[in-house]
């Protein structure tokens, strides 16, 4: 199902201070394109290249132009504008709507929204919201943390210690992005970004302790609203059927929303300091991104040493 005006309203109600002016019954109207449009030429009667599949923004210039027309001209222009089956209209700067706009909105089943923001800021903020809404996305079970600018997703079966490991990392100065359930989306640059589900944002569940509010305990620097996903770490209990990588040469990865993300599998054992192991794994991944692969470097040195030893 595509994005609707209702989705846009819910996503931007707070940040854009949106309110419904007209057409509340038609909020399920789809928005086919993520960009926004300022319909100055359309209101003047030129529709040849009218981007009618986008949210239409009426700012100060559009409102002033409509106000300069006679009542008959304004009614005709507004009717032609709404006849193009636009998704919705957003009026900025908190300006009052024209009676003709409300009348045509009801006639053609088009919602009309209003925001007190100036037009340029509204367009910028609303574009980001639409981009996020239309980006490929998914939800995964796992806890995501920010380790020195590296986004790490901890996954594994329930009770394996994901939240406890994340808690130890937070105590060491790193930050929580999401606990237990992480929302992933691919942005316009092709980067996979992780964030918390809104209802559980900034909270963690620790077995035997219950729910905690992370910033209240560790400060506002202990949480992040979102982070690019750089690494997936799979925690698992010891299993003789699973052969763990002892060299770091496996270079496993997984397709996440069309992007290959490195994966490391770490066994969980009694007495093992998982927080430090995860921290080192994240820093080592950053070194790989910078072109320094310690495992490959050592392997190359060993091969070179063996080759020189065999050479007479």
Describe the structure.
Strands 9-7-8-15-17-16 form a six-stranded mixed beta sheet. A five-stranded mixed beta sheet has the order 1-5-4-3-2. A four-stranded antiparallel beta sheet has the order 6-10-11-14, with no helix packed on it. The protein has helices spanning 5-12, 40-43, 60-68, 71-82, 99-107, 119-134, 162-171, 214-218, 274-289, 294-310; strands at 19-22, 36-37, 55-58, 89-91, 112-114, 137-141, 143-147, 150-155, 175-178, 181-186, 192-196, 203-206, 210-213, 226-228, 231-236, 252-256, 259-267. The chain has 312 residues and is an alpha/beta fold. The relative contact order is 0.10. The radius of gyration is 27 Å and the shape is elongated. The N and C termini lie far apart (70 Å). The protein contains ten helices and 17 strands. The chain folds into two domains: 5-134, HprK N-terminal domain-like (Udp-n-acetylmuramoylalanyl-d-glutamate--2,6- Diaminopimelate Ligase, Chain: A, domain 1, 3-Layer(aba) Sandwich); 137-299, P-loop containing nucleotide triphosphate hydrolases (Rossmann fold, 3-Layer(aba) Sandwich). The mean pLDDT is 90. The longest helix is centred in the C-terminal third of the chain and has 17 residues, at 294-310.
